[in-house]
Amino acid sequence: MNHIDRRNWLKTFALGGGLTMLGGANALAFTNPASKPSNALLDVAKLNSNENPFGPSPKVRAAITAAFDNACRYPSMVFRPLLEKIAETEGVSTDHIVVTGGSTEGLKAVGLTYGLNGGELIAADPTFQSMMTYAENFGAYVHRVPVDENMQHDLKEMENRVNGKTRLIFICNPNNPTGTLLDKNDLKSFCERTSETAMVFSDEAYYDFITEPDYPSMVELVKEGKNVIVSKTFSKVYGLAGMRIGYLVARPDIAKRLQKSVMAMTNVLAIEAAKEALNDDEFYKFSVAKNMEAKQAIYNTLGDLELPYVKSHTNFVFFKTGRPIRDMMMAMEKENVLIGRPFPPFYEWARISTGTMEDMKAFDKGLKRVMG
Question: Which one of 72, 233, 235, 297 has the minimum C-beta count within 10 Å?
C-alpha cells in the first residue's frame, strides 16, 4: 500500500468513527498484529519521546532476524530494494531519495549544507530543534519566530523574515511539540512562494497521524521541481525508533548535494526492517488506531482536571499544567511516569506521548495525584 492508499484508508477510518469501525478497543486487542508492547527498558510509563510501544511488528521482527546472516556485510549489498520501495511509495524516482540514520540525521545533514558560513535559517519557536542547533554549530544564524496565539506556525511573520541571506525555511508539520497542523492551502501557498527565494524544508515525521481528508504531503511540490525537501521517518507509526532509519525526498540535484553531508547512513538490519514495514499494512492501521485510542484517553484525563490542551494531529498532546515543567517532570517520575522535556518559552506546559492503555491509566492516576 502506497502513501495515497494509506491516506485514503485513514480518511475513511476517521470519517467512520475510528475505533468504532474496528469494533472498539476489544476488537483491537483480539486482532492485534503487534508484538507485546515494550517495557523492557524501564518499569515506568515512558511517555516522553513520542515512540510507538507496539513496534516492531512481528513481520518486521522476522525480517530483522532473517537479516542477521547479512549483518557481516556492508549495507550497500542490500540497500537497492529499499531505495526502490521508498521511491515507489512516494511516487518518485530513486534519485529523489536520500536514506539516513533516522530522520534526525537528515535534518542535521540539511542544516550543515545550508547553514555553513553564516547561512540564515527561519523556523517556528518552539519546534523540533535538531536542524537548527546543529546548523548553529557551523556558523548559521537562526531566526526563531514565535508561534501564534493558537500555537501554530506564524507563516506571515516567517515570510517577513526572509532576506537575501536566507538559505532555508524549516516547517515541522504537524509541529513538535505543539501538535498543531497548518491549513493545507496556507501551507502549500507558503511553500510555493518562499521556495522561489530559499529552500523550504518540510519535516513530516508525524504525517501518518493526520486524519484531515486529502491533506497533502509537500512531496507533491518536490515532484513539481520546487526548492523543497521533505523528511520522513520509520520511528513513529512504524515503531522503529531504535533502528534509526529515515529518508529525505528532494529534487535529484538537491538530493545529490545532501547525500554528501550524510555521515552515519544506516545498517543492514534497519534496511530490512524498513522494507518490511512499508509492506505491513495491518500493523500500520493498528498503530494509527491505537494512537487515536490513547490520545482520547489523554483528552479525557485532561478534561477531568480542566487543564487546557492543544488538539493534536500527532502521537502526543501538549497541555498546560500551570506549574514549572521541571517540577512536573520530577513529580511525575515519582509516579513512575516520564513526560516530555522543557520547550521554551512554554515552561508551564508539558508534552505527553501516547502509549499503551496501561500507560494511559498510569498517566491518569499519576497526573491526578500530582495536580491534587
Answer: 72
